[in-house]
Amino acid sequence: MKLIKDKEFLKNIAHQIDLLNTIGGGVSETYVHIEKYKKGAVINVWAAGVSPESFKVVLHNNQLTLFSILHDQENPEMAAPLFNRTFVLPPQVDLGRIEAVHEDGQLQVRLPYFEGTNKPREIEIKQR
């Protein structure tokens, strides 16, 4: 039996099989874990074999949507969604300071809280 020695061919065929498997109902294992801290929260997303370019992070009002799409290299119009998750953010999250970082195969979305939200504040009572 002769093995296929063209590595580029093997890479392309593996990508095609992965894409067709996903379109045909296959599952891409994605793990999401949320860590809460005093100064904010972090959403960690692990998705095996998903490139950083495939992830998208969209903020609309107070909803944060994370998703990834598997694109076909030869046919850019052919794509399959791999992961989609929407989070409703609490009011203490500073929407202007949210950041996303992809490192070591993990997407990390950092949700900082407004400064001083954990400190009690006395509200002055006005008399009229």
From TrEMBL:
- InterPro entries noted in UniProt: A-crystallin/Hsp20_dom, HSP20-like_chaperone
One Pfam family cited in the UniProt record for this chain: HSP20
Q: Report the Gene3D superfamilies cross-referenced here.
A: 2.60.40.790
Source organism superkingdom: Bacteria
Span of domain SHSP:
22-128
Protein family membership: Belongs to the small heat shock protein (HSP20) family.
Q: What is this protein's record name?
A: SHSP domain-containing protein
Q: Lineage of the native species?
A: Bacteria, Pseudomonadati, Bacteroidota, Cytophagia, Cytophagales
